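ok here's the first one, seq then struct tokens
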Amino acid sequence: MRLRSLPFLLALALLAVNCTKDNIDESLASDPMSRAEIGQIVEKFLQEQNTPFRWQAADSRMLWSASVRSDSIMSLGYKPAGATDVEHQLGLIDTHTDEWLAARNKLILLIVEEANREFPSLNATPQSLFRNLGEQGLPVLDVKVFSQRIIEKLREMPEVRYIEPMGYTIGEVAQRSDSGCDASPASSIPGADYTTTAPNVKIPWNFSHSSMKVPQAWNTSSGAGIKVALIDTGTSPSQPKLGSQFNSGYSQGRTLERLGTHISGMWWWASNDGPDDQCGHGTQMAGLLSAPRGDGGATVGVAYNCNLKAFRACTDVIINSSSEKNGVRDALYISGNDNAVKIISMSIGDVFYSSTVADGIYYAYNKGKLIFAAAGTSLSWTSWWGVIFPANMAETVAVTGVTDGTNMQKCSSCHDGPEVDFVAVMQRASDDSRTSLSLAMSGNQPSYIGGSSAATATTAGIAALVWATNPSQTRTQVLDRLKNAASFYPNRNGNFGWGTIDAADAVN
């Protein structure tokens, strides 16, 4: 018999999947909470707590409702029944022992059996409900759950660390999920916004600010020998400064790795997107952090001789889809296992706390990495939110942006709060459109970029300068040197942490 074409088979499979999901949703249509109801609870939490929303605060009905109102994918963190304080031991304990595998297999078997009991027509198998069965990285499973009863059962089990929806987000965040995706070259740049240095690169104006002094720090360090992992939207293949010209001019002998951990596509036919930036944000962050001190009039990065490991882990700056949470978690896990990586820079985040991403943070932190995260960058509709996730975690160093005014003032789109550790000058007090300068998606003409995103990449670069002065330093020693060279030290500010870092002082 002649085999049917792949498109025909694919269409049949998709039809079967959609019909099954429709039947499930139809049978429960009157029960799940509406998106409006869920959104009201989340926004009330954000307003009252001023901290990212945690799904642990939700009851089982809300968890289930958020699951079926999104892509039905949930993250399931597991452990042996007697294990405690697992998160703070990730990376330090062996999670591949028989005891851990038994807990994992117990949960897989239970979910498949319960799904078939409640939805016989589903004909569920481990392969149809779980996405990452073949992976043995962090102790977490990605699973499709359609039943409140199954969620309730899981939450009662001692083998379950957490169960939470991965793809749910409130409306305004979803509408702005492309925020930060503009790396267009500036049509014109005032001469006051840069200086030129050898061999022929532009130094962004804020690098030279009297409170930061990055060019003066270059007399001592250029970041040589320090590897930084950048977890963002990838890097542009059309930008030679992050490709064939990464080693050019005064930037020589360093390494560039471009990786992709973001997976897109249908459940069974999902594929890796690769390392190429389709947003522009990751390219700009890479430019601020590590652009070469070359020629052509492009901008230079803070640590222009550091090694770079750049990930495409998400499609934009908001980690709000299940594939983005997976991508960021996996990039953290890979970075944690790279002994050469000293610093991780994350100019991304969300108003939802994600336990699966947090597992990646814990893992990398326990491997000794110094993790910088953006405090939050947004417009007026979210400006009242505090420091976002994962910058609100104790394991990360939270950074936000400030203006060049006389008094410390956050940039027009930046978040601040008690979790902030450092700030970087990013914006003109007299003109909020004049921010820092970085690489565009292609060519030498710079693009403007600001917010806590730019502040984070810049600060990560300063940390690389400091670490390069003595590669045998520990994370704590480097962090102490950054604090000692900051503008508010030894008195921490309630909204701006230790303040701006004098890079020239820090490296010396």
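and now the second one, same deal
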Amino acid sequence: MKKEVDSTNKILYELDYLRKRLREWEAVFENCRDGISVVDKNGFILRSNPAMQNLYQLPADEYVGKNVTDLVKEGIFNISVSEEVISSKKPVSRMQEISTGIKCLTMGVPVFGDDGEVELVVVNSHDVTELYSLKESLIQSKKLVDGYQAQLTDMRITQMQKEDIIVRSKKMLDILDLARRLAIVDTTVLIMGESGVGKEVVARILHRANPKRSEKAFITLNCGAIPHNLLESELFGYEHGAFTGASREGKAGSFELADGGSIFLDEVGELPLDLQVKLLRVLQERNFKRIGGTKEINVNVRVIAASNKDLLDLVKKGKFREDLYYRLNVVPLKIPPLRERKEDIVALARHFVQYFNRKYGFEKILSAELIDVMEKYNWPGNVRELKNFVERMMVTSEENIMRAENFPADNSAESVHLAPNQITLKGSSLAEILADVEKKAIAEFLKNSKSTTIAARRLGISRATLARKMKKYGLKRR
């Protein structure tokens, strides 16, 4: 008897526990802010909470008990997530649109029976209409900003063209914009960059855009192009009789000539250490003495320095004074090489073509194939090399349309390299082995060239010869 009572009490306790848990789950189901529905394995909706009714804006009896396929046909919602779950036996998430215009992120999760088959699908729908609208607004705002940015870039390019400065790349536009902002103050600027990148162009902008100095002198001095024994007199001038061969009247140096304006010291890293001391004094005191002179000469000069060498590395090696480096490096401007601003290559090339057409009375243009070769080339000499190449091609080409073969062959784009493991010798004779290697080489050059013209030039053969060999080996054009 006691065992029966204990067993009954245990059952009653378990029933009471289950009722409590059921009430908890009912409370969660009914009060959840997300829409929840339970769908059976055949696609019929068994239950739905109030939040789902609010999303559909329908009473439960108008869709509970119906098949989800029919509800899609009726247009209650555009897709059925539960059908995909039943079919795939995996959780599925989709963007679902309700007939009321509400957009939901809907996720269906399968519930499996003892046989391993889908028995129920629990569907959870979260209203993301506001987030979706915000996303669309952000997309439209980004498009608007991008449009304004494009217009601003066009305006910047147009302004540069008015000053005969050719630039398309954002990198260079940003540098030139910074140069304009720096121009209105007299701070010392150090321009860094490889030889030929356009350091003097930037220096001239710094001078021309300065309202106080633009009408004054802009003096340039290449410190690496003048012998060291003459460099001091070029910089600071000399008095009568200062040294053998000196002019009877003496001579003003570059700093005197630049008074009120700007002086551009190119390749400043080439200055000998003794002149570095004197230059430092000029930067600090704004005065100096001519060679052989005793009178202090005061100057109001903006100093713009440039170097294609790493001055900090020269400081570490003891070849450049550290105090002068920091005095010059108040504001550094690093100009990227031409290979890092590909957008500028074609614009500059066309500008130089127009320039030499006017100079020589030509009417020449660049072909698309030649432009492709120029864009692929590494340009170690930067803008200066580009200008030289354009002039060379224009004066040596016979036709008005300059083609890829006119590009200097000894400086063309990088060679195609076949790794040793790419070459497998096939054939029973030397002739067969050579033919197989030739076929592979031609195929590789065709693969890495945009046209057969470029491939032929890089292979060092004519287009006609390449065409015959392609036919011989059954190779197709790109």
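notes on #2: The chain has four domains: 32-127, 176-333, 339-411, 420-473. The radius of gyration is 39 Å.
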